[in-house]
Design a protein that fits this description.
This protein is α+β, with helices and mostly antiparallel strands. It folds into 2 domains: 3-7 and 126-209, PDZ domain (Pdz3 Domain, Roll), CATH 2.30.42; 39-124, Pdz3 Domain, CATH 2.30.42.10. Helix content is 19%, strand content 32%. The protein is built from 5 helices and 11 strands, in the order E-H-E-E-E-H-E-H-E-E-E-E-H-E-H-E. The chain has helices spanning 26-31, 75-82, 104-112, 161-168, 190-199; strands at residues 3-8, 39-46, 54-57, 65-70, 93-97, 117-124, 126-133, 140-145, 151-156, 179-183, 202-209. A 6-stranded mixed sheet has the order 1-8-9-10-11-7. A hairpin with a 7-residue loop joins strand 3 and strand 4 (65-70). The longest helix is centred in the C-terminal third of the chain and has 10 residues, at 190-199. The protein is elongated, with a radius of gyration of 17 Å. Residues 9-33 have low confidence and may be disordered.
Length: 220
């Protein structure tokens, strides 16, 4: 089986000025089952430094900041009350700030330095189940931290079950930047999911697909 998994034990995983790090409830995983196509959501607020009120996962350096939780006292919570049809929820991803793209560090910097008008563009993922059955390698590289929202797919290799799935399911493609939230119906810790993926002959994955390319790497 070819399934490379990388776990970061230490390192910066979120922006402390914007959010804390509460545990997100399992019902948020359940709500992620709805199979809508990936789409963008526009949010505009008068930014109050330090009061955006969101907990973010920054593990995918080149593809944006994934929402872990909208905190009850903050500007995004207020936005959600006023704009229920475009409310921000867990697993949405900030990929553009004030019209600018960048690495997660750059996006965080754009938010902190924004005043007074803050325009955030979120990406809401498509949710689907992918069923992979051995023999054969999964053909993916995975990345996570202990506090990650699921397990990040950092690369889909040319040879493997994931590529075979993609060929047979062009509307439900597994791609770099996607998140795996469940394995065989279980919402586990990232470490437990990776272990289960390495052992099971048949796996059903709950996948979040953002349909988004990474930002171009800038030359030096």
């Amino acid at each position: 089986m070819l399934m490379c998994a990388c776990c970061e034990e230490t390192g910066r995983d979120n922006h402390q000025a914007l959010f804390c790090d509460p545990q997100f409830p399992y019902e948020d995983v359940v709500s992620a089952r709805k199979n809508d196509p990936a789409h963008s959501i526009q949010v505009k607020v008068k930014y109050q430094p330090g009061n955006l009120g969101v907990d973010l996962d920054a593990i995918d350096i080149n593809r944006g900041l994934v929402v872990k939780a909208v905190l009850p006292d903050g500007q995004l919570a207020e936005w959600n009350k006023i704009n229920p049809d475009s409310a921000i929820r867990p697993y949405d991803k900030i990929f553009k700030v004030n019209g600018k793209v960048g690495t997660v560090q750059e996006l965080e910097s754009f938010i902190v330095s924004s005043s007074p008008d803050l325009h955030l563009e979120f990406r809401r993922p498509q949710r689907f189940e992918a069923k992979l059955r051995r023999p054969g390698s999964l053909g993916v590289r995975l990345h996570y931290k202990k506090s990650s929202m699921g397990v990040l797919v950092s690369e889909v290799l040319e040879d493997g079950l994931a590529t075979v799935w993609n060929i047979n399911n062009p509307t439900r493609v597994i791609a770099a930047g996607d998140r795996i939230l469940e394995v065989n119906g279980e919402a586990l810790s990232p470490e437990e999911m990776v272990e289960k993926l390495s052992l099971e002959e048949e796996v059903s994955l709950l996948v979040l697909h953002y349909n988004q390319d990474p930002i171009p790497i800038r030359g030096i």
